[in-house]
Amino acid sequence: MEDYQKMRINDIEYFIIDSIQDFRAEDSFIHRSNKLAQFDGNGESKKHVGTYKGELGQKLSNFFEYSNWGLEHFDSKKKRKTIESAIERGAVIQNNTCFFSKSNLLKYLDDAKAEYYSQEQIYHNDISAFYDERYNEVQNLDTEYIYFSIYDASDNISQKQNRGYMRSDDKIWKIWRELILPKISYLSILKLFPVSPTEENNKPIFYFRILLDYQFRTFVHPSSLLLIEEDLPVVEEIEEIKKSYRIGQERYRRAVIEYMPQCPFSKLTDERILIASHIKPYSVCIREKREDQALDYLNGLSLSPTYDRLFDQGYITFSDSGELICGTQLSAYTWDKLNINPAAKNKMRIFPENREYYLDYHRKHVFLDEITDLI
User: Fold this and answer.
1) How far apart are the C-alpha atoms of 95 and 98, rounded to whole Å?
2) What average pLDDT does the segment 366-371 reach?
3) Residues 170-193: what's their mean pLDDT?
4) How far, in Å, CA of 116 to CA of 111, rounded?
5) What is the four-CA torsion angle of 330, 332, 334, 337, rounded to 10 degrees?
6) Do the Cβ atoms of 148 and 170 come closer than 8 Å?
7) Alpha-carbon dihedral of residues 45, 172, 49, 39, nearest 10 degrees?
8) Which residues neighbour 75 within 8 Å (Cβ) at sequence distance 6 or greater?
9) What Pfam families does the record tag this protein with (predicted)?
């Protein structure tokens, strides 16, 4: 398993042996307070996970190590499927081996703050009214890792649809349904196995994380420049700053490529293809009135388009010494097609000297993972 990425949970090292990265947060699952204006209803508490038949169903079964999808069970007292009826019928997918982390939930809320307050999507409610309450609720969770159980809430095997659903009756399930915003959020699940199994710890655990589409994250949100706070300039000043920055962009690009003439991944040197990718995002420099940083060649890396996107959207980052750090948001299949071994941590030719401030910013604010979780 040495080729697997590793992460640390409660001071225990785990291999990331599998992952599901693309469970979109459908409006049908979203809590009613966050629903889009075009949809009605209260939202259902069960999360769609795809079909449980055929090849896709087999992958789902292998991932969760559960094969009773569609097993009929019903709680006559509560008039629905519950964890109690699932236990009775053998329809528990995972028993207290799934968890959310407080830090991930807070990071999601930080990323989603701009959308909460300056909504690009049209919601039934003004969701800004809920932000502080939800942030405080997560902040006040007792522990960093909150474990819960999931059970099978799928269409019964006798039905034609064969749609797979999972559900939990634990409180944290209600909390994450209330946080997430429809269509632009998704659920990532990492399957972890201990590096050094013990008699008490020899089974996989499942790390549930919620993430936001890149273009809606606060620092690049279309309306992020309109979030007026005490330390931000007014809108008119920002527009003037942006005009002056555009003048220097070509000069900035030439300086970046002159200093770093080759993409360290693809080895391409054709200037027509290379992108001068900002380490500390350009939009943040504008908002902070830091023209010097926006046009500083040390705040740029020469990358070919695919790797620019990986870096720009936070799937990869670098240490101060130039060591490649891969996040956990992409599947092993994707890393393989990118010709990257995410566990290798190779030193890349990015000329890291004097870039420490910018690289630190990228690791803390752009990189999608918590850097302290990775080994």
Assistant:
1) 8
2) 92
3) 96
4) 10
5) 150
6) yes
7) 40
8) 81, 82, 84, 85
9) HNH_2
Give the residue extent of every domain in the chain: 6-220, 228-373
Nearest to 299, CA basis, from 344, 227, 213, 366: 366
The DSSP bridge partners found for residue 163 are 51
| Residue 168: both structure tokens together | 């939990």
Locate 96 and state its tokens.
Answer: 């207290």
- Beta bridge mates, 194: 14
Do 50 and 132 meet the contact criterion of CB atoms below 8 Å apart?
A: no
- Average pLDDT of span 314-324: 96
pLDDT at 228: 37
**73 DSSP assignment:** -
Predicted TM-score (pTM) of the model is 0.89
Q: H or E stretch including 101? A: strand 92-101
- CA dist., res. 77 & res. 107, Å (int): 38
Tokens 């770093």 locate to: 260
Q: What is the CA radius of gyration of the chain?
A: 23
How far, CA to CA in Å, does 113 sit from each of 135, 136, 175, 180? 10, 13, 17, 11
Task: Give the tens place of pLDDT for each residue, 121-156.
Answer: 999 999 999 999 999 999 999 999 999 999 999 999
DSSP letters spanning 257-274: HHHS-S-TTT----TTT-
DSSP codes joined into one string, 265-313: TT----TTT-EEEESS-HHHHHHTT-HHHHT-GGGEEEE-HHHHHHHHT
Q: Could you say which DSSP state residue 123 is in?
A: B
Helices (H) and strands (E) in the chain, counts: 11, 12
